[in-house]
C-alpha cells in the first residue's frame, strides 16, 4: 500500500503539487488523469523518488521513503517496477538482455537462474521465443510488453506506468491495459498509472484520481465518473462526443431503472 499525505512539490517560485493526499491499495489499478500541466508527471516522479517533496510524506507499507537508510533505499528500489512512456528499451540489447538488466543490477543470481526468470516473465506477457530479437524488430505493442516484462522481473510490490498506451493503436492499447490489470490482480501489485487515454479510464479505472492545477480535484471509480457532477472532470473526460453519448446513455439507463 502507498499512502500520500499532504504532498507539496515546487520548482523555484512555481508550486506544482499543492497538498495531495491519496491511498493506493495492493491488487488495485489506480489511474492519475488531468490536463497537461496538472502535475501528473511530477506526482509520479515524486512517488518513485525522483523528486523530494518540500512538505508531506509518501509511505510504502508504513515506511516513509524520505527516512530510508541507504540499505532500506536500495531494498525499496528493488520493490519498484517502472514502465516508461517510450518503453525505454536499450536498442543495442536483445529482449532477453533488456529484461535481465534489473536482475544483473540488483541480484547475485546465476545466469541460469536469471534466464529462467526472464523466460517466465516473457511467457507471462506472451512474448515467448522472442529472447534474441532486438527492439527494432518488434512492433510498438511488443516493445511495451517487453517493458512490462522488465518492470515485473524483480517481482515488484509497486508498479508505475507513465502513459503506457502512448503511440499505440486502440486495439493494442486495450491489450496493454488488460495485461497490466491482470498482472496487478494476479500478483497483488500496487499499480499507479499516468494516462490521457479515456478508454483506459473506462476499462481499468478501479480508482481514478483527477488532478487540476496541482491539487486532487476528484477521486472515484470508472463507474463514478459516469455520474459525477464535477464540472472539471466532465469537461476533461467528456470533451469527446463519443464519451458524451456513452455518459448520456449510462445516465438514462440508470434513470429508468
TrEMBL record:
InterPro entries: AAA+_ATPase (IPR003593), ABC_transporter-like_ATP-bd (IPR003439), ABC_transporter-like_CS (IPR017871), P-loop_NTPase (IPR027417). Residues 2-238 form the ABC transporter domain. Keywords: ATP-binding, Nucleotide-binding, Transport. GO terms for molecular function: ATP binding; ATP hydrolysis activity. PROSITE patterns: ABC_TRANSPORTER_1, ABC_TRANSPORTER_2. It comes from the Bacteria. It holds the Pfam family ABC_tran. PANTHER family: INTERMEMBRANE PHOSPHOLIPID TRANSPORT SYSTEM ATP-BINDING PROTEIN MLAF (PTHR43023:SF6), PROTEIN TRIGALACTOSYLDIACYLGLYCEROL 3, CHLOROPLASTIC (PTHR43023). This is ABC transporter ATP-binding protein. It comes from Polaribacter atrinae.
Amino acid at each position: 500500500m502507498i499512502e500520500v499525505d499532504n504532498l507539496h512539490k515546487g520548482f523555484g517560485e512555481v508550486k506544482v503539487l499543492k497538498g495531495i493526499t491519496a491511498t493506493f491499495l495492493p491488487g488495485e489499478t489506480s489511474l492519475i488523469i488531468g490536463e497537461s500541466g496538472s502535475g501528473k508527471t511530477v506526482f509520479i516522479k515524486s512517488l518513485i523518488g525522483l523528486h523530494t517533496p518540500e512538505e508531506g510524506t509518501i509511505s510504502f507499507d508504513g515506511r516513509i521513503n524520505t527516512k530510508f537508510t541507504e540499505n532500506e533505499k536500495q531494498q525499496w528500489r528493488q520493490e519498484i517496477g517502472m514502465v516508461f512512456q517510450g518503453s525505454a528499451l536499450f536498442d543495442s540489447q536483445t529482449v532477453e538482455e533488456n529484461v535481465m538488466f534489473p536482475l544483473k543490477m540488483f541480484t547475485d543470481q546465476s545466469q541460469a537462474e536469471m534466464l529462467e526468470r526472464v523466460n517466465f516473465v516473457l511467457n507471462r506477457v506472451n512474448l515467448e521465443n522472442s529472447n534474441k530479437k532486438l527492439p527494432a524488430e518488434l512492433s510498438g505493442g511488443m516493445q511495451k510488453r517487453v517493458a512490462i516484462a522488465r518492470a515485473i522481473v524483480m517481482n515488484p510490490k509497486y508498479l508505475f506506468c507513465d502513459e503506457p498506451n502512448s503511440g499505440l493503436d486502440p486495439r493494442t492499447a486495450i491489450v496493454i491495459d488488460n495485461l497490466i490489470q491482470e498482472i496487478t490482480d494476479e500478483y497483488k501489485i500496487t499499480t499507479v498509472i499516468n494516462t490521457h487515454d479515456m478508454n483506459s479510464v473506462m476499462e481499468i479505472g478501479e480508482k481514478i484520481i483527477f488532478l487540476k492545477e496541482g491539487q486532487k480535484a476528484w477521486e472515484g471509480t470508472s463507474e463514478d465518473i459516469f455520474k459525477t457532477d464535477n464540472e472539471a472532470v466532465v469537461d476533461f473526460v467528456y470533451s469527446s462526443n463519443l464519451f458524451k453519448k456513452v455518459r448520456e446513455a449510462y445516465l438514462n439507463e440508470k434513470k429508468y431503472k
